[in-house]
Write a structure and sequence with these properties.
The structure is a homodimer.
Chain A: E1 4-6, E2 11-14, H1 22-29, E3 33-37, H2 41-44, H3 47-57, E4 62-65, H4 74-86, E5 91-96, H5 98-108, H6 118-121, E6 133-137, E7 149-154, E8 159-164, E9 172-175, H7 185-205, H8 212-234, H9 239-252, H10 267-278, H11 283-297, H12 303-314, H13 321-338, H14 345-348, H15 355-368, H16 376-387
Parallel strand pairs in A: 2-9, 3-4, 3-5, 5-6, 6-9
Antiparallel strand pairs in A: 7-8
Helix pairs in contact in A: 1-3, 4-5, 7-8, 7-9, 7-11, 8-9, 8-12, 10-11, 10-15, 11-16, 12-13, 15-16
Chain lengths: 392, 392
């Protein structure tokens, strides 16, 4: 096991009606609050009313910054930073899915900073001052509510980059599974894929292979997210399954699964970010569309890891390593198919004339993430494999 | 799933040579430091020298408070509190196993308090001011380095009680598995039993049964602690296994496994505390000696849970619920036997004339812990079962 630092200071208030505690939590952090959210959804599901009522009960002043879109934009974050400065906000609250929480983090990290926050994403500056971040997740998947990462798209450069820093952990997360009950089947499935891929990437790339607690943790989250997704597609309003999905997705990227595993790569996310920088697609759909081609491309080189995942997650018992690896890929694709995910870039609606541009984008992020194997030649071949994989 | 709060703010620096960072960590918390430790061991394994050298490098003043014994005593904690006050210590460092870390917590919670800290344990006072706690675990098992609990024995009353409060989480944990390399076989085994029992108790008592992520987490820790214990008894100086054991035992009681499971009882710990209040026995040995009788006593009433644990942890596939439950008990006892644990109170050296006194002690703690079924009649019958269980 490699040396590691584990420090996840997020205070999670989990369960029914926990959003009512927003006011008292913010009271301890100071106000006014900038409320960051998307568009219509939090009005429809009652979350907006709960938030406002709790803030009013504690006389917390707030300013609203709505309109975060999926694959959130730097320009919208810039406007949020200006608003937070103008109204002297002392806390930033993200109410929504991963895009909203990431935007809240980005705004919180920019209010007391003179340079453009994009410099974090390109590795040119490090985070120093961050306003306290509070989040109210309304989607299970990204895990942003319990980690220190954020992903943003630069409008002009069409780059979608990720960045993490320990100052970006939310202070408080008010996680009420009720807020996810009305999540439609597509988003439910894409969220589960996001959680699953947060396990696959360490499992298939980690430097350290002998760490039974961590690998069993990854196995646990993989199995739980897949089985719970299927249960939710059958019974979307089952509170307990929503609760399991929300808590499991928070745990997936909380830092435990990767503790001591050394260097880990996030190749599926790398490819997906390049897609959704150009195309306005849901993150989880992009991950699903990339996965079959990525698995096919690594069928030989990662057969041992694929077989082991098959044994642990799908209880595949018979056959050679190659057989088990193939069976594992089949099982994974069958899962994606059964929850109605796109299984190729073509199916996702990507035009193959954009593949070179997507490849270039991948290489920019790969350099920042120090993924040496992801050079232009390899990435181009990989994208070809993802465009129309041979294993469907 | 029940509502819950999850907030484990401990910063863990895990791995080789992390103890060298003690000075810089304490520098951020303020000094002088009270160093709490046991007797000879930390001199033999080099940990003491590492600690002092790191403190000296950062010019941190320190006072030593040595002599913590297994089943730590309130009187020794009182002396530590006096010492910390006299030398105006601003941070308390526990260097050792669970007894030492618990003593450090108790001292830290008493320095700025006027009343006797025993009032926490009897439920008469709640914690308010606690000095920052730093810990350097040298044993895997208690999990005290990553939780908010402490257990102490009242010298005169011969009561060993446990107490938990969120202010008792250590600020920093410097966990170097190297410090556990010289741990002898007995302590290694007893530590693994402690970790295992931290899983069995929620698994067999939790209010909520449908929470797949949490139950798989418990399964993970149970399997990993048992298999790693066997590996360590064969190869005591295997760093990776020591690392797995240390991190797994920290995770076992970190709050994740029990999140959302509602009310949980700790009956094996209840019984063991009563034993070691009277007899100076290692905690893990006491747990092992109680377990067979406790399992036999609940063979009928908890057959469903026992069978499920058997399926998940031991992969028992065939038979009725009763069959699987019996097989599970056999497997668990076989594990305890194979690592050379005592399997009954008699084998542990308890004199049966003390059973009534032990029963009375149990009932005192059971009242504070609100375990209604643990009245004098039931506890007496249970202790009879533990004295010479029928299932060895």
């Amino acid at each position: 096991m490699k040396n590691f630092v584990y420090h996840n200071p997020v205070k999670v208030l989990f369960g029914k009606n926990t959003i009512n505690q927003l006011g008292s939590e913010i009271d301890q952090l100071g106000g006014p609050a900038l409320l960051v959210y998307g568009r219509k959804k939090i009005f429809d599901n009652g979350v907006y009313q709960q938030v406002i009522s709790s803030l009013d009960n504690h006389n917390i002043a707030y300013i609203e910054h709505s309109g975060v879109q999926p694959n959130p934009l730097l320009s919208h974050v810039h406007k949020g930073i200006e608003k937070a400065r103008k109204y002297q906000c002392r806390v930033v609250v993200g109410i929504g899915g991963g895009s909203v929480i990431d935007s809240a983090k980005a705004i919180a990290s920019g209010v007391e900073t003179r340079h453009d926050i994009w410099k974090y994403f390109t590795g040119k500056k490090s985070v120093k001052q961050v306003l306290p971040i509070v989040c109210v997740p309304t989607l299970a998947g990204s895990g942003s509510e319990m980690n220190s990462g954020m992903v943003l798209t630069h409008d002009d450069k069409k780059q979608k980059f990720g960045f993490a820093h320990r100052a970006l952990f939310p202070r408080v997360c008010l996680a009420d599974p009720t807020a996810t009950l009305s999540c439609p089947p597509g988003q439910t499935a894409f969220g589960a894929v996001d959680t699953l891929v947060h396990c696959l990437e360490p499992y298939f790339s980690a430097e350290i292979l002998q760490a039974p607690f961590q690998y069993r943790f990854l196995t646990n989250v993989s199995r739980t997210s897949m089985e719970t997704c299927l249960q939710l597609l059958a019974t979307p309003s089952a509170y307990d399954h929503r609760a399991t999905m929300l808590w499991t997705s928070s745990m997936a990227l909380s830092g435990i699964s990767t503790s001591g595993l050394g260097k880990i790569n996030y190749p599926i996310h790398l490819l997906e970010h390049a897609l959704s920088a150009l195309y306005d697609i849901p993150h989880g759909a992009g991950l699903a569309a990339v996965l079959p081609g990525w698995l096919a491309y690594h069928r030989e080189s990662l057969a041992g890891r694929f077989a082991r995942f098959g044994e642990q997650v799908f209880e595949i018992k018979n056959g050679t390593v190659q057989d088990k690896s193939s069976q594992m890929i089949d099982r994974l694709l069958h899962f994606l198919y059964s929850i109605d995910c796109p299984l190729s870039l073509k199916e996702l609606g990507i035009n193959d004339k954009h593949l070179p541009e997507i490849a270039t984008h991948c290489c920019s992020q790969a350099r920042i993430w120090r993924m040496k194997d992801y050079n232009l030649q390899n990435v181009s071949a990989l994208l070809d494999s993802c465009y129309l994989p041979l294993i469907q």
